Amino acid sequence: MSRREEFVAKARALADEIAQVSDRPATLMEVCGTHSHQFARYGLGQMLPPQLELLSGPGCPVCVTSAGEIDAALALARVPGVTITTFGDMVRVPGSDSTLAHERARGADVRVMLSPIESVDLAEQTDRQVVLLGVGFETTVPGVAVAVAEAKRRGLRNFSLMGAHKRLMPALAALMAAGDVSVHGLLAPGHVSTIIGAGAYREFVAQYRVPCVVAGFEPNQMLRGVLALVKQLAEGRAEVENEYPGAVSEEGNLKALAAIDEVFEPADSQWRGLGVIPLGGLALREEYADLDALARFGIEMPESREHPACRCGEVLRGAIRPPECSAFGAACTPEHPLGPCMVSSEGACAAAFKYEG
Ligand code: SF4
Questions:
Q1: Is the distance from CB of 271 to CB of 280 less than 8 angstroms?
Q2: 63, 347 in Cβ contact below 8 A?
Q3: Hey, is 340 helix, strand or coil?
Q4: Are the CB atoms for 343 and 93 separated by under 8 Å?
Q5: CA neighbor of 194 nearest in space, from 256, 112, 119
Q6: 160 sits in which H/E element
Q7: How far apart are CA 135 and CA 62, in angstroms?
Q8: For residue 239, how far is the Cα from the chain centroid?
């Protein structure tokens, strides 16, 4: 048997076992953009019994960045002498009237970087004001924290941060509290969990009685995660299980968590689709407050104004699936996205468009 045949046989065996164990209709949410893409890419949803519904949740870091945060970044890009550095997908996310890519075409200096520390090096080599636009969950925050601390250590007066970082656990709690979607099980994101640890989900699971399984990104790892969820449902359990033990420990990455804690503290944050979530984001600690880009350039965070036709917020809450948006594949495509869920390589709309047509 070839490796591919072996792989497919394992996937089929797992899907059969899921079908045998699954004894009730259930909605399972994958809280990770990479999971969403892998499910769509390998057609794993079609291997599951019809009573199991898979929904994408608020796990795509670019998608959950609010329109107000994008508009603030656009305002910074328009300040003479400012260079914006950020990650690739952010450049194409629409704000209320522009994108960073459009601002670049109009003459703004917007650069894509692979690592946050590149922004610090750039600041050292230029007289321009370098603003790092930092987005994402606990996975990307440690790198940004290290860059901010390094800029401080080097005494750079032309480096600052516009942070739009998000914390996963407050968002999951907000999602459950909103109650507009019944979620019976959560497939927890492998990447974020490597940082926060499987233990971070225990209080949440105890409070909301929702089974939660940390899963890896290979198709069979995800199917094993789904199997663990349906087993819990069939047995009336609601527990945290770690199906990705090679990468995720109970306590997480203590060094990365310490790096975050050195520079940031929890703060309220505006999420696309979920509104302001108490302690759902991170703010610079007082010792680093002089590196806050919005304060340095006197820019207020604008109100979020999203495209009226875009239903990304509902997609991120799992309230609708991407094809239910009337713009999907028509007014909104990867070439001409109306919202971030169609821009990002981790967005649910982009995944549905690419793999499900
Ligand atoms: S298809 Fe486009 S317009 Fe519709 S929710 Fe997705 S990103 Fe927004």
A1: yes
A2: yes
A3: helix
A4: yes
A5: 256
A6: strand 159-165
A7: 7
A8: 23
Paired strand residues for 188: 214
Task: Identify the residue whose C-alpha is closest to ligand 1 atom 3.
Answer: 310
Q: Can you tell me the distance from the alpha carbon of 132 to that of 159, in angstroms, rounded to the nearest whole number?
A: 8
Name the 3-class secondary structure at 90.
helix
Q: How far is the CA of 66 from the centre of ligand 1 (A)?
A: 14
Contact 113, 85 (CB under 8 A): yes
Q: What DSSP element (H or E) covers 176?
A: helix 168-178
Q: What is the DSSP string of 181-203?
A: S---EEEE-HHHHHHH-GGGGHH
Q: CB–CB of 230/26 below 8 Å?
A: yes
Residue 304's pLDDT is: 78
Q: b or e along 84-107 (b: 16 or more beta carbons within 10 Å of the residue's beta carbon)? A: bbbbebbbbbbbeebbbbbbbeee
For residue 325, which atom of ligand 1 is closest to its CA? 4
Question: Which residues lie below 8 Å from residue 88, measured CB to CB, with a gap of 6+?
Answer: 112
pLDDT, position 357: 65
Tell me the Cα Rg of the chain: 21
The verdict on the CB of residue 311 being under 6 Å from ligand 1 is yes
Is residue 127 within 8 Å of residue 267, measured between CB atoms? no
Per-residue pLDDT tens for 161-173? 999 999 999 999 9
Q: Is the CB of 328 under 6 A from ligand 1?
A: yes
CATH topology for the 62-167+252-296 domain: Rossmann fold (3.40.50)
Low-confidence ranges of the chain (pLDDT < 70): 357
Please check whether residue 45 is in contact with residue 35, taking contact to mean a CB–CB distance below 8 angstroms.
no
Q: How much is the pLDDT for 4? A: 82
Indicate whether residue 315 lines ligand 1 (CB < 6 A).
yes
- CA distances, 49 to each of 45, 77, 121, 229 (Å): 9, 49, 52, 14
Asked if residue 349 has its Cβ within 6 Å of ligand 1, the reply is yes
Say what the pLDDT of residue 149 is. 98
247-299 confidence digits (pLDDT tens): 999 999 999 999 999 999 999 999 988 889 999 999 999 999 999 999 999 99
The full set of domain ranges for the chain reads 62-167+252-296, 312-356
